[in-house]
Amino acid sequence: MRGQRWRYRIGNHLVDVDNGFAWIGWAQERMVVNGEPLHRTGAWFSFRRSFKEPWLTPIGDDELSIDMRSTLTGIVCNATIADEQVEPEALYETAWSGGKGSWPEDEQWIETKQFSFFKF
Length: 120
Hints:
The chain has strands spanning 2-10, 13-21, 26-33, 36-44, 48-57, 60-71, 74-81, 84-86, 90-95, 110-112. With 120 residues, it is an all-beta fold.
């Protein structure tokens, strides 16, 4: 399995959005807030995933929206809160042995400036 992680810092929370995939067509995603998995999905030949989570902002309740989609050259992840784009604080990637639903340990994620899995 190959994995990509987008790390967002929103207020005093760390939000990790993880994508794991196998070249045979399996893809899985999860959203982890402060080390606690909140959403998990997985499917064969999936091209788009979205997560929505209620979020308290300085001006009241709103929603954190995560949208992941496949493109010809990789996976794109967009995060918005209160309709404002949130940029990732860091990017990580990893590879691990495991089947559907498995995830690597946190120390296996390696920080990167650009994902390498889809470079041609």
